[in-house]
Write a structure and sequence with these properties.
The protein is mainly beta. It is built from three helices and 21 strands. Helices cover about 5% and strands about 50% of the residues. Keywords: Signal, Transport.
Length: about 450
């Protein structure tokens, strides 16, 4: 199905919405917000292969959300306008005499230079019946099986449809289909893909030198059930056509203790090949997944590039007053890395180890983590908070044996609580990664954020 199949129902819904705009609710309940993000980015690739990146940019996001028309079936329209501006830096790709990497914040021109600006517009038609809602058009999913990335100037967006059913007490059902994605530094859409298939490969690095391969659709369904005030259970199924099928089971529990509160977050993913990736001929065409398929697997040649991963994790967080102390463990098994949709231009995954620089999601990886958060409000400084985390991964399967890596993250954030600048936020995020499986990196991010309600 091509993009026109989405544009037609969207256009019809828009026409209906606009035609009924005079009905109560559509305009009366509408609102718009302008969000600003000023972003400074500095990265030092310490292995010397890619040099240093230093950039400064401004992101603007305009969100419009209408109300619904009156009647049994309510109709509405949402819109999101995105604009990214280059203020300084950006580097140039492929320039041998320049020790800088390509832009981390902006798309590139044909000559490899960072663009001065990029923008996009997304429209979403919505229908409401009772407590349920259907949305068609631009979506920003934040689900266990697919999660939009928002780590740069502008958020990643997807095109598709989603149905959310809330007709049952304590139970939410979701289902949908996504067809294309627009990266966090893009103004155009791409078909969906995964790590290992989203860029041309050189001979010797895979079964062939096949070009990038993509999927026509990502389908998902899920349920969130609130068992009681303390316990929530989740089940989700995600399937990327021609690549994989993924099952997710999650549990979130909060328990008051005689001293403080304990939160438990348990997650399990089971991801297997389907479609072209499940066949040797399909993988020979380039429908492959990144991973390790070397000695130790008697059928490694036949299964090279096949999606095969299980991931389970547990994260425990204890809070007392201004303090939150967390500890967790994650274990991956199977031949492939952990797999979720990835266009190769920045993605998030729903793992407890998905952090500023690394996701600790390689084949066979086992990761311990510890983190500590402090809210300075209890000490007379409301709006000021900090967090530090350390993650250590080991057992990464590779041609060089089992490898290790670690990451240390530090965040300091402040939000103005009163006065003319109320709501203005400033955040500093510093991280270091040392890895035997990838590059060593030191990175700093500083961003100012502010949201203004227009109406």
């Amino acid at each position: 199905m091509t993009a026109i199949h989405f544009r037609l129902p969207l256009a019809l819904s828009l026409a209906l919405a606009l035609g009924l705009a005079e009905a109560g609710g559509f305009l009366d309940d509408s609102h718009a917000t302008l969000s600003l993000r000023n972003f400074y980015f500095n990265q030092d690739n310490r292995d010397g292969h890619a040099g240093q990146t230093e950039e400064w940019g401004q992101g603007l996001r305009l969100d419009y959300q209408s109300g619904y028309t009156e009647g049994t079936v309510g109709v509405g329209l949402d819109a999101i306008g995105l604009l990214g501006l280059r203020l300084d830096g950006g580097g140039r790709a492929g320039k041998a005499d320049q020790a800088r990497t390509p832009s981390a914040l902006l798309p590139l021109e044909h000559d490899g230079r960072a663009r001065d600006e990029f923008s996009s517009l997304g429209l979403t038609a919505k229908l409401r019946v009772g407590a349920s809602e259907a949305r068609v058009g631009t979506l920003i999913p934040r689900l266990p099986v697919i999660k939009a990335n928002d780590g740069r100037l502008l958020p990643q967006t997807f095109e598709g449809a989603q149905l959310t059913v809330r007709e049952f007490d304590d139970l939410t059902l979701l289902a949908g289909r996504l067809r294309q994605a627009k990266g966090r530094a893009q103004s155009h859409r791409d078909d969906l893909s995964i790590n290992g298939a989203n860029s041309p490969r050189k001979p010797g690095n895979a079964v062939s030198a096949a070009p990038a391969r993509h999927s026509d659709a990502f389908d998902f369904l899920g349920l969130d059930y609130q068992v009681n005030e303390q316990l929530q259970v989740q089940y989700y199924l995600g399937q990327l056509e021609d690549f994989y099928r993924q099952h997710f089971v999650g549990l979130n529990h909060e328990q008051a203790l005689p001293l403080g509160t304990l939160k438990t977050d348990l997650r399990h993913f089971d991801t297997r090949a389907t479609g072209r990736n499940a066949s040797r001929s399909g993988r020979a065409e380039g429908y492959t997944a990144a991973g390790y398929y070397g000695p130790g697997n008697g059928e490694s040649g036949a299964h090279r590039g096949k999606v095969d991963n299980r991931a389970w994790s547990a994260l425990f967080s204890w809070s007392l007053g201004a303090h939150t102390l967390g500890a967790g463990y994650q274990r991956l098994s199977g031949d492939s890395h952990f797999i979720q949709p990835n266009q190769g231009n920045g993605s998030d995954v729903y793992l407890i180890t998905d952090r500023q620089l690394n996701s600790f999601a390689r084949a066979g990886e086992r990761t311990w983590l510890a983190q500590y958060g402090l809210d300075f409000g209890a000490w007379g400084l409301p709006g000021l908070s900090s967090n530090v985390a350390y993650l250590k991964g080991s057992g990464i399967r590779s041609e060089r044996g089992h490898l290790q890596e670690w990451e240390r993250d530090f965040t300091l954030a402040y939000v103005v609580q009163a006065g003319p600048a109320k709501g203005l936020g400033i955040t500093w995020r510093n991280a270091s990664l040392r890895s035997q499986a990838s590059s060593d990196v030191d990175q700093n991010r500083v961003f100012l954020t502010y949201s203004l309600a227009l109406f």
